[in-house]
Amino acid sequence: MRLANKKILITGATSGIGLASLEKSIQEGAFVIFTGRNKEKVEDLQKKYPEQTLGLVSDSSKVAEQIELVKTLQDRDIHLDAIFINAGNVMHKPLGYWTPEEFDLVFDTNVKGPFFLIQAIVPILNNDASVVFCGTADIHIALDHSNLYAASKITLRSLARTLSKDLIEQNIRFNLISPGPTDTPAFDKVAPNPEVKQAMLDSIVHIVPAKRMAKADEVAAAFIYLASDESRYVIGTEILIDGGVVNL
């Protein structure tokens, strides 16, 4: 029970890495406040874990909804021990296909929303609180069509350092988890049909020295470590969970 008596916020927790992190957090004794954009999915997950969770519908790309999320927590007198900024936009496109609206959507979801969520939520963070960003190994490699996505995620790498320095006196620390290729439903969003999806997965596995994709719960295990008291001396850094993609 490494997270016993801790209250944790996980954004984008209705599938993939967020869902795996929610379930591991519950197993480790935490009470989890989680968000998702889909009301039905949020309600279904809340029903599955009625005693251990509080589900809130929230779009991470919208600053006003992040402010409202924090207000809801304040109204319920909830103070947090850890946050997993997991919700993200994984859109990939060749350079020439991007529109200004799509650019804004990627950065609003991956950078702007999280930044202003953190700005608003600092007053309800407990002593020794841990904030974890979900990055990507793409920031270290030139993966096809990851141009804008990787650019947004490397911003989080910088924020993990600068915000750790800004808030070190308040004992609030920031770190980044950077997964490599991970088997999640996110691939359904970037592939137009099953054949294209399978071809994409095959090409990705080919570049992974471990010869497989990560499982969502393997990434979630890193979050548990960073959310726990075991990692109090881990500040402003990045943990790669990439099957050797970056370093081998």
TrEMBL record:
InterPro entries: NAD(P)-bd_dom_sf, SDR_DHRS6-like, SDR_fam
Domain of life assignment: Bacteria
Transmembrane recorded as keyword: no
Gene3D superfamilies: NAD(P)-binding Rossmann-like Domain
Pfam family, one: adh_short_C2
A molecular-function term among this protein's GO annotations: oxidoreductase activity
Keywords tagged on the record: Oxidoreductase
SUPFAM superfamilies noted in UniProt: NAD(P)-binding Rossmann-fold domains (SSF51735)
Family according to the record: Belongs to the short-chain dehydrogenases/reductases (SDR) family.
Annotated protein name in UniProt: SDR family oxidoreductase
Organism: Acinetobacter shaoyimingii
Organism classification: Bacteria, Pseudomonadati, Pseudomonadota, Gammaproteobacteria, Moraxellales
